[in-house]
């Protein structure tokens, strides 16, 4: 027996017509307000790093362009300007400035658009800074080195205008793909910049809320080490374990001889073995550095048969690493460098950390022994 269902078949849902795009009416603003607003416009803003930071920003002039193949504010023409703090008297002007810069002013009167473009062009011709006299604690600091090796700090600032340029490029790319019947997908993230009222941070902040995600290139440790050796050489430092073991042996002898260090052939041989071990460690590290440079050369870091060490590497250290860089007296110079490193070390003696207890007479002997061991 077959039981028939009394359920009434559901009617297919009718597809609703897509909503027409929202059109924002153009609100005319006094023309004299546009130059005032544009003059306050900046390319970079501290608010994008921390919304509670004090207003600070930087605007680049057209002369900042260096002709480099980078996606950067300095290298792209017409990067939109944005405010770094809202002046309520200019809010209407900034709304229209933003719309013209992002291409959302189709219904705007022609004279208003020309007035806005003129104000923006005038502002972009000159560089400007505001709030950069000091750095607020909320902002990030990055320590870099100049060509002389001296440290200096920079404060990275973000650009909502550059984000708008990138978003515009992505929208154009999507439209071309759809027209060709293709699907294009890019991994995007979400940043809640500005919270519920991003306009308090800037008029273009929404363009920064959907960042692109990229796979970073894998770092090659061999190349990194080769570059470090190329520019800095190797640090001449003795083994702390070896030095402490020698000092412990020496302290035990002095305790057994009423605080005096005995001198005989056996004790002097122990000293030579200690210094020879330090020199051998340094020579092994020099050979290891030479191997790292060879790996770097294989990876294409260096060309031809030229030296693989920069001129910034001390001559005696370069001579240790590269035999072709050796000169008369390099062993003596390197022995002095190693001895100075010994003098700057601290060791434990009777439970207290002190500098290496080496006398003047021993220093001459130690440098001579180290020189022989490095030869």
Topology at a glance:
Elements: H1 33-39, E1 44-45, E2 57-59, H2 91-101, H3 110-124, E3 128-130, E4 142-145, E5 151-154, H4 160-179, H5 221-232, H6 240-256, H7 265-298, H8 315-321, H9 330-343, E6 346-349, E7 352-355, H10 360-374
Antiparallel strand pairs: 1-2, 2-3, 4-5, 6-7
Helix pairs in contact: 1-3, 2-3, 5-7, 7-10, 8-9, 9-10
Q: Work out the radius of gyration.
A: 35 Å
Shape: elongated
Q: Helical stretch count? A: 10
Order of helices and strands: HEEHHEEEHHHHHHEEH
Largest sheet entry: 3 strands, antiparallel
User: Could you tell me the strand content as a percent range?
Assistant: 5-15%
Distance between the termini: 106 Å
Helix coverage percent of residues? 40-55%
Helix-strand makeup class: mainly alpha
Q: Work out the number of β strands.
A: 7
Return residue spans where pLDDT drops below 50 for at least 5 consecutive residues.
Answer: none
How confident is the prediction overall: mean pLDDT? 87
What's the arrangement of strands in the largest beta sheet?
1-2-3
Quick summary:
This protein is mainly alpha-helical. The protein is 41% helix and 6% strand. The mean pLDDT is 87.
Protein architecture, described:
This protein is mainly α. Helices cover 41% and strands 6% of the residues. The chain has ten helices and seven strands. The strands form three sheets. A three-stranded antiparallel beta sheet has the order 1-2-3, with no helix packed on it. The protein has a two-stranded antiparallel sheet with strand order 4-5. The chain is elongated. 24% of the residues are buried. The mean pLDDT is 87.
């Amino acid at each position: 027996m077959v039981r028939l269902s009394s359920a009434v078949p559901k009617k297919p849902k009718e597809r609703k017509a897509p909503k027409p795009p929202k059109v924002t009416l153009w609100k005319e603003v006094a023309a004299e307000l546009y130059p005032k607003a544009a003059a306050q416009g900046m390319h970079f803003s501290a608010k994008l790093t921390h919304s509670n930071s004090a207003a600070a920003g930087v605007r680049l002039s057209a002369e900042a362009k260096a002709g480099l193949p980078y996606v950067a504010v300095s290298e792209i023409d017409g990067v939109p300007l944005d405010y770094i703090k809202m002046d309520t008297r200019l809010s209407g002007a900034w709304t229209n400035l933003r719309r013209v810069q992002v291409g959302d002013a189709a219904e705007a009167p022609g004279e208003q658009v020309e007035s806005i473009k003129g104000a923006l062009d005038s502002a972009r011709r000159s560089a400007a800074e505001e709030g950069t006299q000091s750095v607020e604690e909320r902002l990030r600091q990055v320590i870099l080195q100049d060509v002389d090796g001296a440290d200096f700090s920079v404060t990275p600032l973000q650009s909502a205008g550059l984000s708008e340029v990138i978003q515009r490029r992505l929208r154009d790319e999507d439209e071309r793909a759809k027209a060709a019947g293709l699907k294009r997908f890019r991994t995007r993230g979400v940043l809640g910049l500005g919270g519920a009222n991003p306009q308090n941070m800037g008029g273009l902040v929404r363009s920064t809320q959907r960042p692109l995600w990229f796979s970073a290139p894998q770092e090659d440790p061999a190349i990194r080490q080769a570059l470090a050796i190329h520019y800095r050489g190797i640090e001449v430092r003795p083994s702390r374990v070896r030095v402490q073991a020698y000092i412990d042996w020496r302290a035990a002898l002095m305790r057994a001889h009423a605080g005096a260090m005995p001198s005989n052939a056996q004790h002097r041989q122990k000293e030579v073995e200690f210094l020879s071990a330090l020199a051998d460690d340094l020579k092994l590290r020099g050979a290891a550095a030479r191997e790292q440079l060879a790996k770097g050369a294989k990876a294409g870091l260096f060309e031809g048969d030229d030296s693989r060490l920069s001129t910034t590497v001390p001559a005696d250290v370069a001579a240790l690493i590269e035999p072709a860089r050796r000169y008369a007296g390099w062993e003596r110079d390197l022995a002095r460098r190693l001895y100075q490193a010994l003098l700057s070390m601290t060791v434990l003696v009777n439970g207290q950390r002190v500098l290496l207890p080496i006398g003047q007479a021993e220093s001459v002997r130690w440098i001579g022994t180290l020189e022989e061991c490095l030869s």
